[in-house]
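Is pyridoxal-5'-phosphate placement plausible here? Inputs below.
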Amino acid sequence: MATTERTLAEPYRIKTVEPITMTTREEREKAIREAGYNTFLLPSKLCYIDLLTDSGTSAMSDNQWAHMMMGDEAYAGAKSFDLLKEAVEEVYGFPYVVPTHQGRGAEHLISQILIRPGTHVPGNMYFTTTRFHQEQAGATFHDVIIDEAHDPQFEHPFKGNVDLAKFQKLIDDVGAENIAYINVALTVNLAGGQPVSMENIRAVRKMCDDNGIIMWSDATRLAENAFFIQEREEGYADTSCAEIVKEQLSYFDGLTMSGKKDCLVNIGGFLAMRDEDILVKARELVVVYEGMPSYGGLAGRDLEAMAVGLREATDDAYLAHRVGQVRFLGELLREAGVPIVEPIGGHAVFLDAAEFLPHIPQDQYPAQALAAELFVESGVRSMERGNVSAGRDADGNNRNPALELVRLTIPRRVYTDRHMEIVARAVIDLCAKRDQITGLKFVYEPPSLRFFTSRFEPIA
Ligand SMILES: *Cc1c(COP(=O)(O)O)cnc(C)c1O
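Reply from A.M.:
I modeled the complex. Tokens:
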């Protein structure tokens, strides 16, 4: 049965609502012009359905809100830290945790701790802030994801897998002692929320053991990754997602976490690890950049909400609905012939802008143009994940990534399937008049992470 025929409703009742309102086309045209055709610069109140990101946009449960009232705001020794520490140990299996204000705070610390200038960090595709911190610390990033991940139409159950031959080649080329660590993302955001199999995780662990390489995880969407393993990998159909989460992580030396994703909170993150030396260094650095090791730039109530949320996110019924809702939107688009990344990932549906707008060359930023036009058409806010996000190489040229995508990211527990139908309608209508969309050129381009703040204008 196709998942477009949904048999189960949202696994929650709505207790608090936030009104949203539709705008006129004229208001949206004015807004996108003022935002320099960058959806990051739009006021959220003008976004009817906001699919910019799933980061920090989750709806918290009644239990999380109850815990917000129980935050211990003591400067040191707060009990809220103990609650987080217990949850991380019980659910993820790591004895040590260092909170940070969000995921990139943790990326900053681990990059400073593990990277010597001139070393190398392989990863299953880059992530914007992750690579930035690795390069900032003096490392060179190497993409070791399987080739299939760069082909938006290729059907593969675990398109986020590490290509073991690429990893081996890097070891042979630069020497294991010059690899600071391997960073394995669960799931792979920029590949379209694609999962990594348990078999692949085990194989990478073996290579790391054979070569004395540290295995770290960018674990932002580890619960969604577990759902795909349960659904697709032999031998896991009867294992709970909570058990799969724990097994996945048992192979890693540590992780960076953006609590804004699979911990179901609006702000927060942490580093977790087994090694005491890394813990000591992380504690030294966290006081400089984030806050005391027991709060890392967060309020006690944030730690409480994160401790509760990371448990809720591993629940089977929650995950089946979560990934199912993303798939529901994707299947509506696929059935209408809209080009999307296949298979549909865990947190977002990615439109293949290169195929959607074949008449716009990549250096006129087709994905950026499509995201801007979708907003004007419908009030739906999405995000560019293509040439603009990939930035420039050392010679100042656009990186021209193989994937030129627009991401429709679904916040957790926020929208209903009815919202998904409205989004699908908007994209399908826009697809019918796609030849009217024109390319863009930069009018302001910052030196790093340019997608956040750059401004554009249409090419006449
Ligand atoms: C969001 C994200 C990060 C960074 O986390 P923040 O909390 O936004 O700082 C790192 N890696 C991946 C894959 C992410 O999606």
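Short version: The mean pLDDT is 96.
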